[in-house]
Amino acid sequence: MSRRLSCLLATIALLALTPVRWSVATGAGLILALTSLGTISPVTAAPSDPAAPVAQDRVIDVPAQRIFSKVIDPDDFECEPTAIDDYVGAQIDSWTLAELLFVIPHQDVLFGVPTYAALFFGTAGDPAYALGSHAAQLRNTFRDVKKFWSGSEEVQSDDIQLMAMHGDVLLDADVVEATLLLMQEYELLSPPLDTASPAQIRAEAMAVATFLQQNVAGGRALYDDPLWTLNAYAFSGEDETDPFLQSLPDKMVFGDGFLDFMEAIGLGDAGPRVVMGHEFAHHIQFELGLFESDLEGPEATRRTELMADAYAAYYGVHKRGLALNAKRVADALFAFYVVGDCSFDSDGHHGTPNQRERAAEWGAELAMASHPNSAILDAREFAELFDSILPMIVAPDAA
Q1: Is the pLDDT at 100 greater than 50, yes or no?
Q2: What is the pLDDT of residues 136-176, one digit of tens each?
Q3: How many angstroms separate the most distant Cα atoms in the chain?
Q4: DSSP assignment of 14-27, as one string?
Q5: What is the pTM of this model?
Q6: What is the 3-state secondary structure (H, E, C) of 190-258?
Q7: Alpha carbon distance 55, 205 (integer Å)
Q8: Is the bond preceding residue 372 a cis peptide, omega within 30 degrees?
Q9: 333, 313 Cβ separation under 8 angstroms
């Protein structure tokens, strides 16, 4: 850690940060990395009334919720810092002190609005949510992964919309305000915004948009910091009981920051394609009802995330899938490794890096063992095979 970053983190500690609440599905480990750096201390975003309409933990899955009761013993598992820690640390190190002091009280807006604006308002035809980086790659893989699993009649994918999330949404006070109001309705905000009046929400939106509009100098723009969009997620409102959430189209959303991260660690080629396979796997789970199980809390989320890793690896190395060569397969496995997390007591726990690597290895080996090599397993049969091997994948690995 650089001396400058150490000083910035010391500043944060002195300011006694209010814990941040997060509740979103996905894909990658932004909040984990911030937590491991000591920058953010997220806690549970669950509503006090279980019956209240809320975006459930499977709607958008960001590993950030912390529950103060252990479900899994962390001492039984190896979990070392991954590449995302260095990446996030470098981004924080690039902030000026003024920027850092701005980020601290506005975390709900900066980290939440780009994600939830895409969920609540994004459509595939809206230029504001159009794919930018890796657009052709993502579109082609989206087409191919739908075709790959088309033999599974239970999996319907024609209604999925592919789109992006961008940081520039933070420049529009009206969009920020509208997003915050909905986040407040679904109890996705931390104090004081969780009980703020409409006028106070408007003031917060204006404050953030104004600061970010003014904070553009020397080719640097804080609104476009990759940390605000370091995520990818799948959404389906099919099983939601809230009318608004139920009305939203099925989506796969890729953040600019997540794609930037993949480039930064040398996975710009295979990484986004394998992540597409992972996010499509969540749609398979939505369609097949695979989120329902006897497991609860972190163990339930870990199962579905590791299963999605296995689906993605199976698609990634299969002859009729991405057909990645040995090096690209290794890169894809590393992509899963770097987004593994050790938030054992979090409902958003995705599995340790070792567990995610084992799940991906199992999926890859299953694809390579296909006979004939063009045969593709039915999606439900794949899930049943995965559930039979899950205890081995999550077995303790610490010495």
Answers
A1: yes
A2: 999 999 999 999 999 888 898 999 999 999 999 999 999 99
A3: 64
A4: HT-PPPPEE----S
A5: 0.79
A6: CCCHHHCCHHHHHHHHHHHHHHHHHCEECCEEHHHCHHHHCCEEEECCCCCCCHHHHHCCCEEEEEHHH
A7: 22
A8: yes
A9: yes
